[in-house]
C-alpha cells in the first residue's frame, strides 16, 4: 500500500435534491440552509489546520461548500473530484427508480452505481480518484461527494472495491485518512 499524504475529506453540505431524494450525479442543486450550516461546521473543524493544499470538486454544490469551508482562501477546483456519473439515473427520484428497477437495488448496497446505464461505473471513478491522489504532494483538504469520498478512502487505505459500501460518509463531518487509517470528526 502506498503511503499517501494525509487527506482531510469533506462531503458537500445537504442540497435541495438531497432533501427531495433526487439523484444528482453530474447535475447540481443548491445547498439548503442546513447544508450551509454543515459547511460552516466543517470550516470550524479545519480552522486550525495549516500548510495543507485545498481542493474541491467542480460541481456547484461542492464549490459552494468549499467557499464556506475555506473562508476566502484559494483552492484548486478539480474535475477528478466530481461525483460518479450515474448516466440515465441522473436527476431521477430515488424511490421512483427503485420501484421501476428493483433488481438493480437488490441487496441494498451501492452496487447499483456500477450498473447505472450510461454511467461512469466504479472502474472509471477509481481511475479518476487514483490520478488525483497520485498528483498530491502534500497533506490536503478536499471537498467532494459521497461516493467519490468513499472511493478516495478506499484507494488511500488500500482496500478492495467490495468494501466501498462499508465506508460511512456524513455531511458536515470531517474524514481524516492518515497512514491507511480512517477517523471521522463531527
UniProtKB/TrEMBL annotation:
Residue stretches spanning the membrane: none
Keyword set includes Ligase: no
Recorded superkingdom: Bacteria
Keyword Metal-binding in record: no
Pfam families named among the record's database cross-references: His_Phos_1
InterPro entries membership: His_Pase_superF_clade-1 (IPR013078), His_PPase_superfam (IPR029033), PG/BPGM_mutase_AS (IPR001345), PGM_Phosphatase (IPR050275)
Protein keywords: Glycolysis, Isomerase
SMART domains: PGAM
Protein name: Histidine phosphatase family protein
The species this protein was found in: Paracoccus simplex
Amino acid at each position: 500500500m502506498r503511503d499517501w499524504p494525509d487527506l482531510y475529506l469533506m462531503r458537500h453540505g445537504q442540497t435541495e435534491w438531497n432533501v427531495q431524494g433526487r439523484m444528482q450525479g453530474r447535475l447540481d442543486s443548491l445547498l439548503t440552509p442546513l447544508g450551509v450550516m454543515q459547511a460552516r461546521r466543517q470550516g470550524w473543524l479545519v480552522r486550525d489546520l495549516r500548510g495543507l493544499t485545498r481542493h474541491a470538486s467542480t460541481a456547484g454544490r461542492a464549490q459552494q461548500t468549499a467557499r464556506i469551508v475555506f473562508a476566502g482562501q484559494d483552492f484548486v477546483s478539480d474535475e477528478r473530484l466530481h461525483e460518479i456519473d450515474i448516466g440515465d439515473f441522473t436527476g431521477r427520484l430515488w424511490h421512483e427508480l427503485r420501484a421501476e428497477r428493483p433488481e438493480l437495488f437488490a441487496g441494498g448496497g451501492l452496487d447499483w452505481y456500477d450498473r447505472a446505464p450510461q454511467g461512469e461505473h466504479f472502474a472509471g471513478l477509481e481511475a479518476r480518484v487514483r490520478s488525483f491522489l497520485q498528483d498530491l504532494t502534500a497533506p490536503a483538504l478536499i471537498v467532494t461527494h459521497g461516493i467519490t469520498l468513499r472511493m478516495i478512502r478506499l484507494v488511500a487505505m488500500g482496500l478492495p472495491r467490495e468494501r466501498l459500501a462499508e465506508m460511512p460518509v456524513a455531511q458536515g463531518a470531517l474524514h481524516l485518512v492518515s497512514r491507511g487509517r480512517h477517523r471521522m470528526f463531527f
